[in-house]
Structure to design on (191 residues):
Protein backbone atom coordinates (compact mmCIF):
# COMPACT_ATOMS: atom_id res chain seq x y z
CA UNK A 1 0.00 0.00 0.00
CA UNK A 2 3.08 2.19 -0.05
CA UNK A 3 3.29 3.01 -3.77
CA UNK A 4 6.59 4.26 -5.10
CA UNK A 5 6.75 6.51 -8.16
CA UNK A 6 5.88 5.76 -10.92
CA UNK A 7 3.47 3.21 -9.39
CA UNK A 8 -0.21 3.72 -10.13
CA UNK A 9 -2.23 5.23 -7.28
CA UNK A 10 -5.57 5.99 -8.93
CA UNK A 11 -8.85 5.10 -7.20
CA UNK A 12 -7.43 4.73 -3.70
CA UNK A 13 -10.66 5.93 -2.11
CA UNK A 14 -12.88 3.73 -4.26
CA UNK A 15 -11.39 0.52 -5.63
CA UNK A 16 -8.26 0.07 -3.51
CA UNK A 17 -10.08 0.75 -0.26
CA UNK A 18 -12.70 -1.84 -1.21
CA UNK A 19 -9.95 -4.46 -1.65
CA UNK A 20 -8.44 -3.52 1.71
CA UNK A 21 -11.78 -4.01 3.48
CA UNK A 22 -12.12 -7.50 1.97
CA UNK A 23 -8.59 -8.46 3.07
CA UNK A 24 -9.02 -7.14 6.61
CA UNK A 25 -12.44 -8.78 7.03
CA UNK A 26 -11.10 -12.10 5.71
CA UNK A 27 -8.19 -11.93 8.17
CA UNK A 28 -10.52 -11.10 11.08
CA UNK A 29 -12.77 -13.97 10.00
CA UNK A 30 -10.12 -16.41 11.19
CA UNK A 31 -10.88 -15.33 14.77
CA UNK A 32 -14.51 -14.10 14.81
CA UNK A 33 -17.63 -14.33 12.65
CA UNK A 34 -17.63 -11.65 9.96
CA UNK A 35 -19.93 -10.94 7.02
CA UNK A 36 -19.21 -12.37 3.59
CA UNK A 37 -17.59 -10.06 1.06
CA UNK A 38 -19.75 -7.31 -0.38
CA UNK A 39 -19.62 -6.15 -3.99
CA UNK A 40 -16.03 -4.95 -3.52
CA UNK A 41 -16.20 -2.07 -5.99
CA UNK A 42 -17.74 1.36 -6.38
CA UNK A 43 -18.53 0.76 -10.09
CA UNK A 44 -17.15 4.15 -11.21
CA UNK A 45 -18.84 5.45 -14.40
CA UNK A 46 -17.93 8.75 -16.09
CA UNK A 47 -19.39 10.35 -19.23
CA UNK A 48 -18.00 13.59 -20.58
CA UNK A 49 -17.36 16.12 -23.32
CA UNK A 50 -15.83 19.60 -23.21
CA UNK A 51 -19.29 20.87 -22.16
CA UNK A 52 -20.35 18.34 -19.49
CA UNK A 53 -19.03 15.70 -17.13
CA UNK A 54 -21.14 13.18 -15.26
CA UNK A 55 -19.62 10.81 -12.70
CA UNK A 56 -21.42 8.28 -10.57
CA UNK A 57 -20.80 5.21 -8.49
CA UNK A 58 -23.28 2.36 -8.35
CA UNK A 59 -24.33 0.24 -5.40
CA UNK A 60 -24.39 -3.54 -5.33
CA UNK A 61 -24.88 -6.37 -2.86
CA UNK A 62 -23.55 -6.51 0.69
CA UNK A 63 -22.47 -9.88 2.04
CA UNK A 64 -24.70 -11.97 4.26
CA UNK A 65 -23.69 -12.10 7.92
CA UNK A 66 -24.33 -14.13 11.06
CA UNK A 67 -27.15 -11.65 11.83
CA UNK A 68 -29.03 -11.97 8.52
CA UNK A 69 -29.03 -11.44 4.76
CA UNK A 70 -27.04 -8.67 3.14
CA UNK A 71 -28.88 -5.60 1.88
CA UNK A 72 -29.32 -5.13 -1.87
CA UNK A 73 -28.43 -2.14 -4.06
CA UNK A 74 -26.22 -0.36 -1.54
CA UNK A 75 -22.71 1.02 -1.40
CA UNK A 76 -20.59 -1.41 0.57
CA UNK A 77 -17.87 -0.58 3.10
CA UNK A 78 -17.45 3.10 2.26
CA UNK A 79 -19.22 5.95 0.52
CA UNK A 80 -21.34 8.94 1.15
CA UNK A 81 -22.67 8.86 -2.40
CA UNK A 82 -26.35 9.60 -2.77
CA UNK A 83 -28.62 8.01 -5.33
CA UNK A 84 -29.28 10.81 -7.84
CA UNK A 85 -32.95 10.88 -8.88
CA UNK A 86 -33.30 9.78 -12.50
CA UNK A 87 -35.45 12.80 -13.33
CA UNK A 88 -32.72 15.19 -12.14
CA UNK A 89 -30.01 13.35 -14.03
CA UNK A 90 -32.01 13.29 -17.28
CA UNK A 91 -32.91 16.97 -16.97
CA UNK A 92 -29.30 18.08 -16.51
CA UNK A 93 -27.34 15.70 -18.76
CA UNK A 94 -27.67 14.20 -22.26
CA UNK A 95 -28.38 10.78 -20.76
CA UNK A 96 -31.49 8.63 -20.58
CA UNK A 97 -31.85 5.89 -17.99
CA UNK A 98 -33.41 2.94 -19.80
CA UNK A 99 -33.40 0.58 -16.82
CA UNK A 100 -32.59 0.77 -13.13
CA UNK A 101 -33.51 -2.26 -11.06
CA UNK A 102 -32.23 -4.82 -8.61
CA UNK A 103 -30.36 -7.74 -10.19
CA UNK A 104 -32.35 -10.73 -8.88
CA UNK A 105 -30.36 -13.76 -7.82
CA UNK A 106 -26.96 -12.05 -7.92
CA UNK A 107 -26.41 -12.44 -4.17
CA UNK A 108 -24.65 -15.62 -3.07
CA UNK A 109 -26.68 -18.46 -1.61
CA UNK A 110 -26.41 -19.31 2.07
CA UNK A 111 -28.23 -19.53 5.35
CA UNK A 112 -28.20 -15.75 4.96
CA UNK A 113 -28.07 -14.73 1.28
CA UNK A 114 -25.86 -12.00 -0.02
CA UNK A 115 -27.60 -8.85 -1.21
CA UNK A 116 -28.35 -8.40 -4.90
CA UNK A 117 -26.55 -5.97 -7.17
CA UNK A 118 -28.28 -3.56 -9.53
CA UNK A 119 -28.75 -3.23 -13.27
CA UNK A 120 -28.38 0.25 -14.70
CA UNK A 121 -28.74 0.85 -18.44
CA UNK A 122 -27.92 4.35 -19.73
CA UNK A 123 -28.39 5.68 -23.26
CA UNK A 124 -26.14 8.57 -24.28
CA UNK A 125 -27.96 11.25 -26.27
CA UNK A 126 -24.85 12.86 -27.73
CA UNK A 127 -21.34 11.76 -28.59
CA UNK A 128 -19.16 11.64 -25.48
CA UNK A 129 -16.31 9.82 -23.78
CA UNK A 130 -16.90 6.95 -21.38
CA UNK A 131 -14.51 5.92 -18.61
CA UNK A 132 -15.10 2.87 -16.43
CA UNK A 133 -13.23 1.80 -13.32
CA UNK A 134 -14.98 -1.30 -12.02
CA UNK A 135 -13.83 -4.39 -10.13
CA UNK A 136 -15.21 -7.85 -9.41
CA UNK A 137 -15.53 -8.63 -13.12
CA UNK A 138 -13.12 -11.62 -12.88
CA UNK A 139 -13.21 -12.68 -9.22
CA UNK A 140 -16.53 -12.90 -7.43
CA UNK A 141 -17.26 -11.55 -3.93
CA UNK A 142 -16.56 -14.51 -1.67
CA UNK A 143 -19.10 -16.22 0.51
CA UNK A 144 -18.10 -17.22 4.02
CA UNK A 145 -18.76 -20.03 6.50
CA UNK A 146 -20.02 -22.24 3.66
CA UNK A 147 -22.00 -19.57 1.80
CA UNK A 148 -21.84 -19.17 -1.99
CA UNK A 149 -20.03 -16.44 -3.86
CA UNK A 150 -21.93 -13.42 -5.20
CA UNK A 151 -22.30 -12.93 -8.95
CA UNK A 152 -19.55 -11.23 -10.92
CA UNK A 153 -20.22 -7.73 -12.19
CA UNK A 154 -20.72 -7.24 -15.93
CA UNK A 155 -20.37 -4.27 -18.26
CA UNK A 156 -21.98 -4.19 -21.71
CA UNK A 157 -22.03 -1.67 -24.52
CA UNK A 158 -24.88 -2.10 -27.00
CA UNK A 159 -25.39 -5.62 -25.64
CA UNK A 160 -21.75 -6.72 -26.03
CA UNK A 161 -19.40 -7.39 -23.09
CA UNK A 162 -16.72 -4.78 -22.42
CA UNK A 163 -13.90 -4.62 -19.90
CA UNK A 164 -14.00 -3.44 -16.33
CA UNK A 165 -11.46 -0.68 -16.86
CA UNK A 166 -11.55 1.35 -20.05
CA UNK A 167 -11.92 4.71 -21.68
CA UNK A 168 -13.49 5.06 -25.12
CA UNK A 169 -15.64 7.25 -27.33
CA UNK A 170 -19.40 6.69 -27.43
CA UNK A 171 -21.86 7.83 -30.08
CA UNK A 172 -25.35 9.21 -29.58
CA UNK A 173 -27.71 6.27 -29.10
CA UNK A 174 -25.16 3.91 -27.53
CA UNK A 175 -26.39 2.06 -24.45
CA UNK A 176 -24.11 1.22 -21.53
CA UNK A 177 -25.40 -1.44 -19.14
CA UNK A 178 -23.73 -2.06 -15.80
CA UNK A 179 -24.66 -5.15 -13.78
CA UNK A 180 -23.11 -4.72 -10.35
CA UNK A 181 -21.85 -7.66 -8.28
CA UNK A 182 -23.93 -9.34 -5.61
CA UNK A 183 -22.65 -9.97 -2.09
CA UNK A 184 -21.43 -13.35 -0.90
CA UNK A 185 -23.70 -15.62 1.13
CA UNK A 186 -23.15 -16.54 4.78
CA UNK A 187 -23.34 -20.12 6.04
CA UNK A 188 -24.40 -23.25 4.18
CA UNK A 189 -27.83 -23.09 2.51
CA UNK A 190 -30.62 -24.78 4.45
CA UNK A 191 -31.67 -28.15 3.11
Amino acid sequence: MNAVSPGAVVAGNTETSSRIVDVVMSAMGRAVDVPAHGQGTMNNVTFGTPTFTYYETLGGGQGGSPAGPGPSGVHVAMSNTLNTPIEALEREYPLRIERYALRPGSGGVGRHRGGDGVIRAMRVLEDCRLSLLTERRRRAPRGTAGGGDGALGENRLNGRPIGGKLSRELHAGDVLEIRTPGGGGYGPPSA
In short: The chain has a mean pLDDT of 93.
